[in-house]
Amino acid sequence: MDTYEYRVVSIDGDYANLQRIDQETDDLKLVARALLPEEIAEGSELIYECFEYRMK
Questions:
Q1: How many Å separate Cα 56 from the centre of its chain?
Q2: N- or C-end of the chain: fewer Cβ atoms within 10 A?
Q3: What is the spatial distance between Cα 45 and Cα 33, in angstroms, rounded to a whole number?
Q4: Residue 21 exposed, middle or buried by CB count within 10 Å (0-12, 13-18, 19+)
Q5: Going from the N-terminus, what domains does the chain have, and what CATH number goes with each?
Q6: Angle at the Cα of 44 (from 29 to 35), degrees rounded to 5?
Q7: What are phi and psi of 30, to 5 degrees?
């Protein structure tokens, strides 16, 4: 499976905006916080692999 790296740009209630950092893009991905590690904060870096997010 592919591995993607993201940075948490902002947190808005039950959702977080993620920006991909392993390739150049200005697009943001809106993800439910229930799918993300509890300890995330703005600026946290995540790895997405095998349908799961984990802290970098």
A1: 10
A2: N
A3: 14
A4: middle
A5: 3-55 (2.40.50)
A6: 50
A7: -90, 120
